[in-house]
Amino acid sequence: MPQAGNSVNLVTYAHFYTRLHMDFNAWRRRRISEPAYRWARKAMPGLSDTEREAIEAGDVWWDADLFTGDPDWNKLLAVPQATLTAAEQQFLDGPVARLCAMLDEWDITWHQGDLPETVWQFMREQRFFGMIIPESYGGLGFSPYAHSEVVRRISAYSITAGVTVMVPNSLGPGELLLQFGTPEQRDHWLPRLADGTEVPCFGLTSPEAGSDAASMVDTGVVCRQMVDGQEVLGIRLNWHKRYITLGPIATVLGLAFKLQDPDGLLGGEVDVGISVALVPTSTPGITIGRRHLPSMQVFQNGPNQGADVFVPLDALIGGTEKAGHGWQMLMSALAAGRGISLPSLSAAAAVYSAHVTGMYARVRQQFGIAVGRFEGVQEKLGRLAGNAYLVEAARRLTCAALNQGHKPAVVSAIMKYHATERMREAVNDAMDVHGGKAVIDGPSNYLGSLYRALPIAITVEGANILTRCLIIFGQGAIRAHPYLMQEVLALGDEDDERGLQTFHDVFWRHLAHSAKNGLRAWGRAWTGGVLARAPSSGPVARQYRRLSRYASAFALVADVAMGTLGGALKRREMLSARLGDILAELYLLSAVLKRWEDEGRNHADLPLVMWCMEDGCARLETRFDQVLANLPKRPLAWVLRAIVLPVRLNRGPSDALTRECADLLLAPSPTRDRLIANLQRGEGDDVLAQLERAFALVNAVQPLHDKLKREGVRDWREAHRGGAITDEQARQIEAAEEAVRRVVAVDDFEPGAFARRPG
Fold this sequence. Notes:
Largest sheet: 7 strands, mixed
Number of strands: 9
Distance between the termini: 111 Å
Helix content: 55-70%
């Protein structure tokens, strides 16, 4: 009987607590969730169709883990590193190496005005334009990493060739056909694109619509027209595009336009929406062929127009089923392509700049000392080495995600902006160290073309200002946040009751998540992150804990900013940009630690890892400080500062660490080889080969100079005459000095070389 009584009591208590919980839940919904829901619906601006499609494009990856505030580092380390297949490696060692040997950027830019026809033919024959197209369609079927490696190697030799190879394999007809084309479209176009029979371009940007591509005024009207004596249902197109890479020589144009169906011939709405079609450039009404000259770069780029151009309906990529889905298609393609093309070029530029600047700073002397030994120059060299390590690390990590089938839209935006900005920083540092050598143009200048190309990378595939201020955090907050996307969808639900219930359920999970992050961020900030999780990683274990600390701080600050500003945060672009910078820095530093692990935890590489971490943590604290200084709710900002940034501890890399990284560029070593791994080297007697030869000779004879210096001998010729060094040693020193003279020489021209010529 007591047992039965106890059972009855337990059931009673269980019923009581269940009832109490239900009452409390109803009270929470009525008193808290519903007012919050009503306020949020008014405060949150509605998403346009184009904004929704842009946000939903691609997927999330490690960015989502960072947004949780407690990233699982073992998950990151378990990601297989990007590798090449045997066929991909053979392509790099064969056709890519041969292509690079054919390229002379000075001749291409100032004499040819284009890639030589022999180069065009070689790229067609070797299927450089079909790298992403599967072998079943005649392409190479390469992985994203192989695609990235090819672009990286070529870009170090020639921006013109790099961009020419990059574009057909990035955002363009090939990518769109693979993702959205009909079987008939793939069967027809992909083999012709793969072997270079068709040269593609893609028309998106117009004079009226640059960054705001959705505002394009280019139109297509569904209509019937007589063609060869038969009535055909199709589209009459009118457009004006500009900045179209490969446009002047394209044979097929991928065209984005706003499709209208005023007569209801498709059976739907009048305004169908942005659509994408493939249009042969030989179609009557098209004007194409004129060229732009972007920053004195001569890759093919130009405007095109169409006036009453008629194409059949099957020109729509994906057929009529994809009519009106063009913006979604473009954003999906861009989510992957933007993570490969410009990051690959940026990695090439950063590594190349570190490589050539370290060599030049070693062989160039002033006041009897290699300029690389002056601390002012070492500051630049250390940053060059660190940026080269970081950008290459981020490129590899991003390619690893793409190889696994991810299309990380936010990560791609991070890479587009931050890789190109680090490239700009690296090339500017390289120019500063080289001085007049890089200022005087001519065949001997191996930096000038890269410097002139910087604004192009900053501008294309989403201008950097737009990407930083509106996309990285704006898209990341909705897509990568564990709860925000569900809340946004609930707020936009046409069924008010269903939306409220969904919002109520997610809202309280969001609050619990924020509270947990608040405690986590406070604990980690006040203990220096010592209690945060870290894999067993020896000398870098503390670095994982530091990033965990900043990740929890970011998750908390982001939640507070979004909760207090609501939809107004979209207009507070400087705040949004800084929050995006924090997310991006967390990603970039994650890539640095991942690279160190993947390369075998080489102790000699630790100065580069530590420089990146010190520099990155200083950047993180600066951005946190700026966000907290500008949040409008000042008392809340003061509380947040006490929680996440009670004191600023990170001021950037020490001078000693910077000097250590600079020294890695000034002499051959396995670490230096890893830093510039797989970068295309000089060929024959070209300017890069001359620099590499001088670098090797100067380092080889340095022990002789050190010996003579210890013996108080200033002139090696005097030592040779006195028998202190052998004839062979004297020849080595003389060869080194001659090699240096060739390297430091700059070009000059006949007075009439710059005269304008007719035509």
